[in-house]
Specification:
mainly alpha, 103 residues, globular, two-stranded antiparallel ribbon
């Protein structure tokens, strides 16, 4: 039980950081490696929000969304050069991975 609450605390901290962050201006309307960066953000955020609202569980469809978005982020991250964008999308990937593993 303690490990689970610590895990949730990490996700909660990252989620609060993500909510407080401004979407990088250079990523608005951008597509990298065939992926729309706004949609990557929206899809992961929707799954994380659902995971939090459902007490740490996700349905199979949202798990699939997260795994597809993690794969997309793996392709996108090496193409980013701006520090702000890297920070933002690395955190997004971390949120996706943690939520997929826990959910």
């Amino acid at each position: 039980m303690r490990g689970e609450s610590e895990y949730e605390a990490v996700v909660d901290r990252l989620w609060q950081e993500h909510l407080a962050a401004t979407f990088p201006a250079g990523s608005r309307g951008a597509e990298l490696a065939g992926h729309d960066l706004v949609m990557l953000d929206a899809d992961v955020a929707g799954c994380v929000s659902t995971w939090r609202g459902n007490g740490g569980s996700l349905d199979a469809r949202r798990h699939q969304v997260l795994y597809r978005r993690i794969a997309a982020l793996e392709k996108v991250l090496p193409l980013l050069t701006d520090t702000e964008e890297l920070r933002y999308f690395r955190r997004l990937r971390q949120l996706a991975v943690l939520t997929a593993e826990a959910g």
